[in-house]
Write a structure and sequence with these properties.
- There is one protein chain.
- With about 150 residues, this protein is of the alpha+beta class.
- It contains three helices and ten strands.
- It has helices at about 15, 75-80, 140-150, and strands at about 10, 20, 30-35, 40-45, 50-55, 60-65, 65-70, 80, 90-95, 105-110.
- The strands form two sheets. Strands 2, 3, 4, 5, 6, 7, 8 and 9 form an eight-stranded mixed beta sheet that branches. Strands 1-10 form a two-stranded antiparallel ribbon.
- The structure holds zinc ion.
- Zinc ion binds next to helix 3.
Length: about 150
């Protein structure tokens, strides 16, 4: 991850929902459907929809309702596409607004390296599992570290 605390911006999860998502090569891949500390879930298509589980590390910038990724469309499809919808107990989404104020009060686009333990106290509230490869973890910081390194 590019460590650039000066460029960090904090965005409330509510603002991200329904934002359009663009790949590095400028392809519109859908809208933001769910958000948590580790992933942005993009929904593509209304019938036969796919979901892209984009690690937050892969975000280049958020600009005026548009989210830009660091990867190309081809790589997004190869690495992050899934058919299953996100687990509502682990994500903030419109249908499940409670996470907005409890587990995911805000979303850091470029997370500063200096505050990794922010949610440590709430770690047993849901199963900690990587949505891309299904590895499981004991703490939120371990999961975040895994996503950072592996995806
Ligand atoms: Zn994983």
């Amino acid at each position: 991850m590019a460590s650039d605390p000066a460029g960090s911006i904090k965005i409330d999860a509510v603002q991200l929902i329904d934002g359009r998502v663009y790949t590095l090569d400028g392809v519109d891949i859908g809208t933001i459907y769910a958000v948590n500390k580790d992933f942005i879930v993009v929904k593509n298509g209304i019938i036969n929809s796919h979901f892209y589980y984009i690690p937050v590390d892969n975000i280049q910038k958020w600009n005026n309702g548009k989210l830009w990724l660091k990867t190309t469309k081809q790589n997004v499809k190869k690495d992050y596409e899934k058919d299953s919808a996100p687990d509502p107990s682990a994500y903030y989404m419109k249908e499940n607004p409670r996470h907005h104020e409890t587990y995911f009060p805000s979303f850091v686009v470029i997370p500063p390296k200096t505050s990794p333990q922010a949610h440590e106290g709430e770690r047993d509230q849901h199963k900690l599992e990587c949505d891309l490869c299904h590895a499981s973890f004991r703490t939120q910081s371990e999961l975040t570290f895994h996503i950072d390194k592996m995806h």
